[in-house]
Design a protein that fits this description.
Elements lengths: L1 E3 L2 E9 L5 H10 L3 E7 L3 H10 L4 E3 L2 H5 L6 E4 L6 H10 L3 E5 L6 H14 L3 E4 L6 H11 L6 E11 L8 H17 L5 E8 L5 E9 L5 E7 L1 E13 L3 E5 L7 E12 L6 E11 L8 H15 L7 H19 L5 E2 L1
Parallel strand pairs: 2-3, 2-5, 3-4, 5-6, 6-7, 8-11
Antiparallel strand pairs: 1-2, 8-12, 9-10, 9-16, 10-11, 12-13, 13-14, 14-15
Helix pairs in contact: 1-8, 4-5, 5-9, 7-9
Bound molecules: nicotinamide-adenine-dinucleotide.
Nicotinamide-adenine-dinucleotide binds next to loops.
């Protein structure tokens, strides 16, 4: 940690400057509480891009040079999932806090080991569950906590587009971590079971999948992820006892619309005499915070390190998401059979 202008600055090393890495580097470079001292990528093209954009930053080829650097307090790992375990482990062993991309690890045993190692070393792990820091998810979380929606009935999300095909993970591991981290954050219950179906069409990995997660208290979540959709859709419905909500993340304004709609069923004289009342009231679109989610998340990570707080998206949150992904993969292999989490 460095005292610059009287303030404490967390010095970061970043591994991986492909598609998502530049966003992490840009935000860490701009934040007041952090500084990027080195970026490592094994690709020469990526290294050229780093050098051109950040001439003041040290560019490295070998992760070992970053791990052993006494200058670095924390490491951001922005590489494909299969490398997260080894890199996170090495960073923790070298006394660095870790910001690691979603999904946390390739399996839950790896995640458990890393959580234990971080605890032993008194270091922080934050898993990049970016959506938790969006204005939309913050608003939904607030509406649920205030009881505006009432008891949750369901979460139903469609996250589909054409590509980007990944070579190392299927569409479940690529796209579903977003929704799974959101439902983990909003529902705050341990899921009971997962059922998922999916199909491989092009490269041997599932490119279309439908995942159902069963939670206690009759809450059900459904996630449709697809790399073979002609159009991009990012729409989520959340049904509550008191209100219902539609979140269209592709809308520039009014991403969230809350409907005062619902159904009340009363039965006066037994099952054959049901009174069904449909409520159809107003719709409104609340104001949402407009700040870049990743910027807020990284600022929060720096703050968690400085104040020794445990982030909400810590290793344990990452593990809960990995457990649901594992269950979904197992269920796909059994054509949708229930897998208990
Ligand atoms: N939070 C989000 O919204 C979000 C969005 C996109 C991707 N991601 C995640 O970010 C991670 C990276 O995805 P991407 O799309 O940027 O991948 P990518 O393949 O575009 O980039 C990865 C980069 O890491 C480098 N790399 C890989 N292993 C390395 C190693 N051992 N040492 C040094 N460099 C190494 C590669 O050369 C490449 O430049 C994935 O886990 C992905 O799920 C998150």
């Amino acid at each position: 940690m460095d005292k610059g202008n009287g303030d404490t600055v967390i010095k970061f090393g970043v591994i991986g400057y492909g598609y998502w890495g530049p966003n992490v580097v840009r935000n860490l470079d701009q934040l007041e509480g952090s500084k990027v001292v080195a970026v490592c990528d094994k690709s020469p093209t990526a290294r050229k891009r780093i050098q051109k954009t950040y001439p003041h930053v040290r560019v490295l080829t070998e992760t070992a040079d970053l791990m052993s650097s006494t200058e670095v307090d924390a490491i951001a790992i922005v590489t494909p999932v299969w490398s997260h375990y080894e890199l996170t482990k090495a960073a923790l062993q070298n006394g660095k806090h870790v910001f690691v991309e979603k999904p946390f690890t390739s399996d839950s045993a790896q995640a458990e080991e890393l959580i234990e190692l971080a605890a032993k070393k008194n270091l922080k792990i934050m898993v990049d569950h970016t959506f938790l820091f969006t204005g939309a998810v913050k608003k939904i979380s607030q509406l649920l906590e205030e009881g505006t929606l009432g008891k949750i009935y369901y979460y139903d999300s469609m996250r589909v587009n054409l590509g980007l095909f990944q070579h190392d993970v299927n569409v479940i591991w690529d796209l579903a971590p977003h929704d799974l981290s959101i439902i983990d954050h909003l529902i705050k219950e341990t899921p009971e079971a997962v059922s998922a179906t999916g199909q491989t069409h092009l490269n041997g990995l599932e490119d279309v999948a439908f995942i159902t997660v069963y939670f206690p208290n009759k809450i059900i979540a459904h996630i449709n992820v697809n790399w073979l959709s002609p159009v991009k859709v990012r729409t989520t419905l959340i049904g509550g006892e008191k209100k219902m909500l539609v979140w269209n993340d592709l809308e520039a304004d009014e991403k969230i619309k809350i409907y005062d709609k619902g159904v009340n069923i009363t039965s006066r004289e037994g099952l054959y005499n049901l009174l069904v009342n449909y409520r159809s009231g107003d719709m409104w679109a609340p104001q949402l915070e407009q700040v870049e989610a990743l910027k807020q998340e990284l600022a929060y990570f720096v703050d968690c390190i400085l104040t020794n707080r445990t982030p909400v998206n810590d290793g344990a949150a990452g593990l809960r998401v990995v457990k649901m992904l594992e269950a979904a993969n197992q269920s796909v292999g059994k054509r949708g059979a229930l897998v208990y989490v």
